Amino acid sequence: MLVLEDVNVFYGAIHALKGISFRVDQGEIVTLIGSNGAGKSTSLKTISGLLRPKSGKMTFNGENLAVVPPQTIVAKGISQVPEGRLVFANMTVIENLEMGAYLRKDKAEIKKDLQRVYELFPRLKERSSQLSGTLSGGEQQMLAMGRALMSKPQLLLLDEPSMGLAPILVKQIFSIIKEINESGTTILLVEQNAHMALSIANRAYVLETGKIVISGDAKELAASEEIRKAYLGG
Ligand code: ATP
């Protein structure tokens, strides 16, 4: 579905992604793990078109993504939940969710998807008329995920969904990510919480200073001594 080959991305003189290659197949949960500054967020921003690769190949369903303008990438079926959530604070919960569907015309289907988001996140239904800026951190994470789902993506990009959340909420968010995947959405998950990410992913790539240093089956990586030492706290 998504293929990156030898992608190089720069911030001015800073070489942030140094020839990275990875793929996400339809139906999978793939996770990119790695410590601070490894290039995880940069990878997602490159896929969603906010950053442009200087060289390399990037395709989605066989189409060259590197030449598609960012506003068209959502219409192609890729939706990103950015780090730090970034909901529209002065709009209500339901207005935020409706914004997620702004490119769609299928009113009946939009209504169904709204019900589906409310089933996944009953808290959002309870708070539908509350201003989003007054939601708790966990509720804002739910809203950002719900808003991304309202575009009916084929591929959902999640940037650190566990950041700043209490452990019990982290568990809940990860079980919802699994549920979203089981109902047909492919997921690329960026996480510092390697333990949780590996527990739900099919495959994983480990990034270190802009390069992929290890890749493989998520369960095998979770069991590997090297990964345990470096990323799972021994
Ligand atoms: P974290 O887990 O801390 O968010 P990350 O793996 O997501 O880390 P990135 O945000 O992708 O890391 O950053 C990769 C590298 O690019 C870092 O060295 C960072 O300092 C650099 N970088 C990121 N954004 C910019 C920017 N706007 N200008 C210059 N350098 C940047």
UniProtKB/TrEMBL annotation:
<dbReference type="InterPro" id="IPR027417">
    <property type="entry name" value="P-loop_NTPase"/>
</dbReference>
<dbReference type="GO" id="GO:0016887">
    <property type="term" value="F:ATP hydrolysis activity"/>
</dbReference>
<keyword id="KW-0547">Nucleotide-binding</keyword>
<keyword id="KW-0067">ATP-binding</keyword>
<dbReference type="InterPro" id="IPR003439">
    <property type="entry name" value="ABC_transporter-like_ATP-bd"/>
</dbReference>
<keyword id="KW-0029">Amino-acid transport</keyword>
<dbReference type="InterPro" id="IPR030660">
    <property type="entry name" value="ABC_branched_ATPase_LivF/BraG"/>
</dbReference>
<dbReference type="GO" id="GO:0015807">
    <property type="term" value="P:L-amino acid transport"/>
</dbReference>
<dbReference type="GO" id="GO:0005524">
    <property type="term" value="F:ATP binding"/>
</dbReference>
<dbReference type="InterPro" id="IPR003593">
    <property type="entry name" value="AAA+_ATPase"/>
</dbReference>
<feature type="domain" description="ABC transporter">
    <location>
        <begin position="2"/>
        <end position="234"/>
    </location>
</feature>
<dbReference type="InterPro" id="IPR017871">
    <property type="entry name" value="ABC_transporter-like_CS"/>
</dbReference>
<keyword id="KW-0813">Transport</keyword>
<dbReference type="InterPro" id="IPR052156">
    <property type="entry name" value="BCAA_Transport_ATP-bd_LivF"/>
</dbReference>
<protein>
    <submittedName>
        <fullName>Amino acid/amide ABC transporter ATP-binding protein 2, HAAT family</fullName>
    </submittedName>
</protein>
<dbReference type="GO" id="GO:0015658">
    <property type="term" value="F:branched-chain amino acid transmembrane transporter activity"/>
</dbReference>
<comment type="similarity">
    <text>Belongs to the ABC transporter superfamily.</text>
</comment>
<dbReference type="Pfam" id="PF00005">
    <property type="entry name" value="ABC_tran"/>
</dbReference>
